[in-house]
Amino acid sequence: MTDELELLRDWDADAPPLTEPARAQARHRLLNTITRTERHPDTGPSRRRALRLATAGVVAMAITGTAVLITTEGEVPDRAGTVAPRMRNAAAAKVLNGAAAYAGNQETPVAPRGDQFIYSKRIIKETDRKTGKVKTFVDVNWDSVDGSKRSLTMERGNVIWEEAMGKNEGVWPPREWSKLKKLPTEPEKLVPAIISANGTTDQSIDDLSGFDWFQAYFLLGELLKHPVLPQGMRSTAYEALALVPGVKAIPGVKDSAGRTGVGIAYTGEGSQKGSYLIFDAESYEFLGFRSEGSTASGRTYIQLSHTVEWAIVDRLKQRP
């Protein structure tokens, strides 16, 4: 994507209001744009920028009620236009619910001020699939808590300055502590809340479509990348992931520190091959992420990452 307005180009203000299936499909297109950015990090806007733009796009869609109908792929709708529910994987649910219990026992309540920054340090190791050569990146980020100040972030060693968010801009997960605290701490309510444009929680998860579950898995994964969450939110996110049809446990997956654990992969609509969340096989402690990607030049690689340090600080470039 070379032009950020491609996300909005197909929208028509004179089109009739969207049906609910069409609205879900439009959100699916936005998320697919983000995942394409992740798979091709050498082109287009940064992944974080794409998330920010997509969030604004979903809000705009909710206001205008217009978008182009996107063709479904990989799903067989029933006569009512919904996707039949899939079976949930017991092994994956055991790992994710264990991770929820571990996170709940380890967390310490925090509440950053809006004028502060969240500092985090992440290690990324990329292995070229053809040559076996390994590149190591140390990415250090300072995120404005409420988005009112510039943020400094790194992606694969590239330094990126992000300007303060405008009045109608947002990012997922929300930076404002007040918005994070408003997210439901019940997994059955968190899923519909994060996939709806207005935070609705009254939809039953039994009625969600394949598009909805794709969005839920993707957005929950992004939420879990946030190093600081309100008390109970991380555990809730893990429990919500356990509800997602199509999650699967993959044994013997190594993280960027060389530790062997269990990978949790999503195999449903929109899934990415070789993309896992990695957990310790016994304690279920979260270890990091694994993904496979490619560059614009055609080079393919395996990427492993984990956060090694985080803190709440008062200034940009301040370290704990």
TrEMBL record:
Q: Which domain of life is it from?
A: Bacteria
| InterPro entries linked | CU044_5270-like
* NCBIfam families in the record: CU044_5270_fam
Task: Specify the protein name.
Answer: CU044_5270 family protein
